[in-house]
Design goal:
Layout: H1 17-30, H2 34-48, H3 55-73
Length: about 80
């Protein structure tokens, strides 16, 4: 969600001076705003922890999970071969 969009939430986050300076420089180098950097960072964090970022991702994950459980439930047990031990 971009700044100023309906439904956006504002939170205050504190950085030490060194970190803030590095973020500002990274923003300049990449031609991104601090908001863009924060959006990217939080999306990466959600992905890392398996949290869907939006409805499309949630549906895709749900369909994949349902497909895995259906495939596992439909499998026939493998017969063991009789071998002399």
């Amino acid at each position: 969600m971009r700044r100023g969009e309906q439904g956006s939430v504002r939170k205050l986050i504190a950085f030490d001076e060194d970190t803030f300076d590095k973020l500002k420089q990274l923003g300049r180098d990449q031609m991104l705003s601090l908001q863009d950097l924060a959006d990217e960072a939080f999306m990466d964090l959600l992905e890392k922890h398996g949290v869907p970022a939006d409805l499309k991702d949630a549906l895709r994950k749900s369909a994949a999970d349902a497909g895995d459980s259906t495939a596992k439930a439909g499998r026939k047990p493998r017969k063991r071969s009789k071998t002399a031990a």
